[in-house]
Amino acid sequence: MKESPGVVDLLGVLAYAELSAYARMTEDAAVLAPSLGDRVALSELAVTEYAHFRLLRERLAELGADPAEAMSPFVKALDAWHAQTRPGDWLQALVKTYVGDGIAADFYREAARHLDPSIAKLVDDVLVDEGRSQFAVERVRAGIETEPAAGGRLALWARRLVGEALSQAQQVASARPELALLLVKSVGEGQADISRLFARLTEHHNKRMAAMGL
Amino acid sequence: MKESPGVVDLLGVLAYAELSAYARMTEDAAVLAPSLGDRVALSELAVTEYAHFRLLRERLAELGADPAEAMSPFVKALDAWHAQTRPGDWLQALVKTYVGDGIAADFYREAARHLDPSIAKLVDDVLVDEGRSQFAVERVRAGIETEPAAGGRLALWARRLVGEALSQAQQVASARPELALLLVKSVGEGQADISRLFARLTEHHNKRMAAMGL
């Protein structure tokens, strides 16, 4: 394989992220949606995540990697993230979908930036938003309008989502140095560049929070 | 609408059956699959059920029906069926997928038999097997080979699945007489015809049990 050594790791973690997001969103839709229409709307997004998983699995196979093997180093961390951020209600589920997937997508895109263009494009394609934001943003804004006290509660929830995500990401980075290296390479070696990366991620996160009215 | 009055009911119950099967199979795959490969294999089947749900939803909309309204009379019975037949392990999940979906499909096909051919074809299309049987049959047979005692336990499980399905079907039939009427029409009015229908359903069920080695 002529690919950078971190590529299989990147596609592996992303594949498992899509596979587990699909399962969790499906469950949240079935258990938490306040109506059949909402249930179907979130299920549509879940099934789209699965379609993205399929693309990643195919590319892993093309690279000569076993998809299950490529995913397995990341199962524990992603499962732990989901277990620690199980939504308690419908609005929490929507915020999780939007904020959680958003910050994860920012990380994956940064890691893919200096890779082979076909890999960077694949990563970009599977992270495409496809109306997920609009759906979550509209419902969450409407929810806060109906019940203004929900705003503060959801802002705290979003902070917890990010905290848990960073804590799991740190563990993955120390266990998979080649994957971590992709991120460092993408920003250059200097401390200033890493600070800029975090500033960029924070800015994107704050934009998402503002969009939801949080 | 020139359609028979039971058509929206039939497409509605089938749509919710596909939507709930998708959610349950997704959860069983995530929770019970013994490997990532098995998890993906069952998830593929779950996502196929969702694709079938989409076809039914489109047709309901074309008939001028609201899909959520068409599904809602059947939510309680199908949810009760799933709640009472929650698989305890991977082999139970596979038997449920094969036996439960199989007997339900037999009923839906009987009900659609004398409807407008485009409806009958749609029902047939969304009930197409697409390798589900092969997957479940192979894994269950292999499971029994590894652990012969599992056979008796799974045969009892299958009997319970059918018993619960018949009990829920009876409640649906008494609550939705137009849907029940489709089934009666398909076999003619006589008691002998209904006996033949049940003989046919039993025969199909026994074939599925034999295929799994139960």
TrEMBL record, chains A, B:
SUPFAM superfamilies: Ferritin-like. InterPro entries: Ferritin-like, Ferritin-like_SF, Ferritin_actino. Pfam families: MiaE_2. Residues 6-185 form the Ferritin-like domain. This is Hydroxylase.
